[in-house]
Amino acid sequence: MRRYARTLVAFALAAGMAAGTTGWVSGDAQQALTGPPPGSAQWRADRALGTELPDPERATPAEVARFFAGLSTAEQQLLLVRHPSVVGNLDGAPLELRYRANSLALAADDDPRYRSLAVPGRQILAFDPRGRGQVAEVFGDLRTAQRVSVVVPGSDNDAGTFDRKVAAHGAPPGMARTLHTAAGPGTAVVAWVGYTTPVGVGIDAATGSLAEAGAGRLTRFAEGLTADGLPEPAVFCHSYGSVVCGIAAHRLPATDVVVLGSPGMRADDAAGLRTKARVWAAKDPTDWIDNVPNVRFAGLGHGTDPTDPAFGARRVPANEARGHAGYFAPGTDSLRAFAAIARGTAVPEGAETPADARVLAQAPVLEGVAR
User: Fold this and answer.
1) Which of 84, 193, 205, 370: disulfide with 105, CB 3.0–4.6 Å?
2) pLDDT band at 204; cut points 50, 70, 90
3) pLDDT tens-digit profile of 295-342?
């Protein structure tokens, strides 16, 4: 028991050190935003088309896609105008409708935190102003892309901080933008802040409750992409976002799951994720996440370091990245490797396959999917 107590103390000290304090960052505990989009009650009661509309909470993305496919253009536009907050966040609805719906919702929202999101030309695929706000933005032509990627960020991200003035490659839209630029034509990248993230490095960041809620939302979002006829995405998961991806992995439609700066994925090894996707991991030598013990006890911690050879992930080179937010910096080996994964080309130069041949070592590369 003393050994476990020492482990917990080490975890707390490491988290405090990472935050530049002598203990846990205080930060308010976050309540995960769950359930259907705003305006769902009015949507459910609407009989303008003479029939019930698919329940935003219970209908699967595939059912939503079939519903919209059976509507005329005029009927789709009617729902868009009457219920922009539902259509804009309804996984499985045509992405073109979602762009227009979110443009309407943002134009009607007078919260100054979201003003920059309403700038014409932005492709906002999801926008929910409730709480701290959630948002997803597309870079590239998602409809024609042969390969799609989704960036899942970690702590301190929401719709209000989405456009914060940090390093161009450090915030979610910067990560997605630089990845799209590096991956090139035929690709599209989504910056997805579609879950309630922890604030600071506190108890929320050390536990999995927010990640559990986020995993369901991420899975539904990815299912919505495929239901709309888009390719299964490669998912790039940063920091606490890798906890979300680890929990979602067994049901997440994805070609690749790439974690960077990860505190753990709540799995002992890659096989424990129970995913058909190729699993990749990156950690640069200056990332403070290396100071966080990879333990799980009494609900604290997220388990094995995915870059540990025993975990069985393919190792992504990251010697040129700097710090916890430097993996997408232009010119780095990590970004070059990410771009190759996003394109679905051969194994990136410098990448390592798992030492354990049982874990995806013989996975097909050309299609980017391990079967």
Assistant:
1) 84
2) confident
3) 765 567 788 999 999 999 999 999 999 999 999 999 999 999 999 999
Q: Does residue 309 contact residue 355 with C-beta atoms inside 8 Å?
A: yes
Residue bearing tokens 């080179």: 317
Give the residue among 296, 291, 278 at the shortest CA–CA distance from 361: 278
> What digits encode the pLDDT tens for the residues 72-85?
999 999 999 999 99
94 close to 102: Cβ distance less than 8 angstroms? no
The pairing of strands 314-315 and 278-282 is: parallel
- Res. 139 pLDDT band, cuts 50 70 90: very high
| Closest CA relative to residue 138, chosen from 187, 101, 185 | 187
Which conformational region is residue 150 in: left (phi greater than 0), alpha (psi within -120 to 50 degrees), or beta? Answer: beta
Report d(CA 292, CA 13) in Å as an integer.
9
DSSP for 17-56, written as a single string = HHTTSSS----PPPPPP-SSPTTHHHHHH--TTSSPPPPT
Q: 238 Cβ partners below 8 Å, 6+ apart?
A: 151, 152, 153, 154, 175, 259, 260, 261, 325, 327
Q: Among candidates 106, 21, 61, which has minimal Cα distance to 288?
A: 21
Distance of alpha carbon 206 from alpha carbon 148, whole angstroms:
30
CA distances from 242 to 182, 296, 359 (A): 22, 15, 19
Question: Backbone dihedral region of 340: left (phi > 0), alpha (psi from -120 to 50 degrees) or beta?
Answer: alpha
Pick the closest to residue 308 from 272, 341, 282 (CA basis). Answer: 282
The backbone torsions φ and ψ at residue 240, rounded to the nearest 5 degrees and listed phi first, read -60, -25
Q: Strand pairing partners for 282?
A: 260
